[in-house]
Design a protein that fits this description.
Layout (H helix, E strand, L loop, with lengths): L1 E2 L4 E2 L6 E8 L1 H5 L5 H12 L1 H20 L11 E3 L9 H6 L7 H9 L1 H4 L2 E9 L2 E6 L2 H18 L4 E8 L7 H18 L22 E5 L4 E4 H13 L21 E9 L2 H8 L6 H37 L6 E7 L2 E7 L3 H13 L12 E9 L4 H29 L6 E7 L8 H9 L7 E3 L15 E2 H12 L4 H13 L1 H13 L4 H11 L4 H20 L1 H5 L14
Parallel strand pairs: 4-5, 13-14, 15-16
Antiparallel strand pairs: 1-2, 3-6, 3-7, 5-6, 8-9, 10-12, 10-13, 11-12, 14-15
Helix pairs in contact: 2-9, 3-7, 11-12, 16-17, 16-19, 17-18
Length: 575
């Protein structure tokens, strides 16, 4: 730190490494069922540091410079140097750093040089894994900037909680791994001790929001209604950020036929084991220069391959479907950052979107590795008038269902020395009981008659010996779909689901009846493998499996698998 009056660096100053963590992200974003507020809340969290922390740092540096009598022009103060902002790059950084690189020498020179130290409070280390790391010039600077930052959040956003944990670097920039470990340990303590009290008090005569119970403090010109401070901030953010990349603004335009089939789907996709993967990127490196560089590059890699490129794949697939003119094809992005994508689409497109995303991702090798990237997808099909936040919750639970299975398979494959990176798709058709957990709904509706989640494992589609005994692969699902598509009567397909839910005996009888009533011998020959088993032991085992599969397939048969008029009667593959 430069003390202007003494003209030298204070001998007792130590750098401070700080980590910021936005608390209760999902609760903040999905507190409401209004989509504009949900998108706005997501973007507020995404831009929280750029719009509130950086201005707080600038404000503090201006105050400090004025107090110490250091003349600075209006555009001279940058506060916290962000490596993604090349326009405000300090001269010593530009001399040494290139792109995502970090230089310990450059940072130390910046903090020691009188001109730079008066302008910069520190530097962004990296952003990733839901956390934001900043290297400050000292503890005092970190604390004072956070005081301003907290006041800004409370005044403008009111309910957003951001937890900042910092440690002083006693020995300077020596060992990044050890410093981050100490920071995480202190952060866990801070998490346990943080206050859970919400800063809201209302009197009996105060109007409150009927969903959040927050006091109505603003009048929103667009909605022409009174809203809370939180809702006003979210609506204003949505108005500021919404553009074409988010997709269709009017959800009614996504449904196939309004009033007849108003079905939409929430597709929630999240990367697998991202924390462990990011940790492994560092290897045995300990220096700040190499660790920070690798983390910055990894953060950029994740954003590109898990979000940007996959959205392009989805858009291309939807464009091809739209050209056929048979179905509505579109999407509405809600959350897309890091390794997570959450979008709304026509229910008929949800399966294709999830498969397109996962297949494209699985073709990408993880950074500095031969292992493919992987993720799990959860799909919740719902009626357009249903509460979106509840449908999102179901989609997230479907994704977690896939991740739970993925972790079991990962352990088994590790012993076999095979690739652990696999993708799962789980889906739930929200018909009733949407307010309960996914497990409770499924137990109540079908009593555990579930074949999902489905394994999408491109590496072992032909050799599935390394899957879990209970796993059903997408390849198996589509093989059964092909057999169902050969049935002449759609009613027979639907009756299979009724029989499957009734009992195993009823299902076996219905399978044989449908097979016996087929008039085309070629079709019967191709159906035989699925519908009829000669060996009684094998028959019993396979029918238990097919009973679950066919029940789950028939639920979404009309949306995803049924042949359209004009398409061939049967083929090699349904997709």
């Amino acid at each position: 730190i430069i003390n202007k009056r003494e003209g030298k660096r204070m001998s007792n100053s130590k750098y401070a490494l700080a980590m910021y963590d936005v608390r209760g992200k999902q609760e903040y974003i999905f507190k409401t069922n209004k989509l504009k507020e949900i998108v706005g809340g997501s973007c507020i969290i995404r831009d929280c540091f750029k719009e509130y922390l950086f201005p707080s740092a600038e404000e503090y540096m201006r105050r400090k410079a004025k107090k110490e009598g250091i003349p600075l022009s209006d555009d001279a103060v940058c506060g916290i140097y962000n490596y993604n902002d090349s326009e405000n790059e300090p001269e010593y950084i530009s001399e040494i750093n290139k792109g995502k690189e970090f230089s310990q020498k450059a940072f130390e020179r910046m903090m020691q040089d009188e001109k730079c130290a008066a302008r910069y409070a520190g530097e962004v280390v990296y952003e990733g894994g839901g956390n934001f790391f900043v290297l400050y010039k000292d503890k005092e600077t970190c604390i004072e900037i956070n005081k301003i930052f907290t006041r800004k959040l409370l005044k403008e956003l009111y309910t957003l909680k951001v937890l900042c944990t910092y440690i002083e670097l006693e020995n300077g920039l020596v060992n990044f791994i050890e410093d981050r470990k100490k920071l995480y340990e202190k952060h866990r303590i801070s998490e346990a001790e943080e206050s859970v009290i919400c800063p809201v008090n209302t009197l009996p005569f105060v109007q409150v929001d009927e969903v959040t119970s927050l006091p109505l403090t603003k009048y929103n010109e667009n909605t022409r209604k009174k809203v809370s401070t939180e809702a006003e901030a979210k609506l204003a953010k949505h108005l500021d950020v919404y553009n074409e990349k988010y997709g269709e603004k009017d959800l009614d335009k996504l449904v196939t036929r309004k009033g007849e089939e108003s079905l939409l789907a929430v597709v929630y996709i999240d990367g697998n084991n991202m924390g462990a993967k990011v940790q492994n990127v560092l290897g045995r490196e300990t220096s700040y220069d190499q660790c920070v560089k690798k983390l910055r590059e990894t953060s950029e890699f994740i954003q590109k391959n898990y979000v940007e490129d996959r959205i392009k794949d989805i858009d291309q697939m939807l464009e091809e479907k739209a050209k056929k003119g048979k179905k509505k094809a579109g999407k509405r992005l809600v959350v897309f950052a890091g390794d997570e994508i959450n979008l709304i689409c026509n229910a008929r497109d949800a399966y294709d979107i999830a498969k397109t995303y996962l297949k494209g991702l699985h073709q990408v090798s993880w950074k500095d590795s031969t292992e493919p990237c992987s993720a799990c997808a959860g799909i919740a099909i719902f009626h357009s008038h249903a509460p979106y936040a509840q449908a999102y919750k179901i989609a997230e639970e479907c994704c977690e269902s896939g991740k739970t299975r993925m972790k079991k398979l990962e352990k088994a494959r590790e012993k076999e020395g095979k690739s652990k990176e696999v993708c799962y798709i789980d889906v739930h058709y929200c018909q009733k009981g949407i307010g309960m957990s996914l497990d409770d709904i499924r137990e109540k509706e079908v009593g555990g008659l579930i074949s999902k989640p489905w394994l999408l494992d491109m590496e072992d589609e032909k050799n599935t010996t390394s899957k879990m005994p209970e796993d059903i692969t997408i390849m198996e699902i589509e093989k059964v779909v092909e057999a169902l598509q050969m049935i002449e009567s759609r009613t027979n397909v639907k009756d299979l689901a009724v029989a499957a839910k009734l009992s195993e005996g009823a299902f076996n009888l219905e399978m044989r009846r449908i097979y016996a009533h087929q008039s085309d011998e070629d079709i019967k020959r191709r159906m035989k493998e699925i519908f009829v088993q000669e060996d009684r032991e094998e028959f019993g085992q396979k029918y238990k499996k097919y009973r679950k599969m066919i029940y789950d397939i028939v639920i979404v048969y009309d949306l995803w698998f049924r042949k359209e008029e004009g398409e061939e009667k049967y083929g090699n593959n349904s997709k």
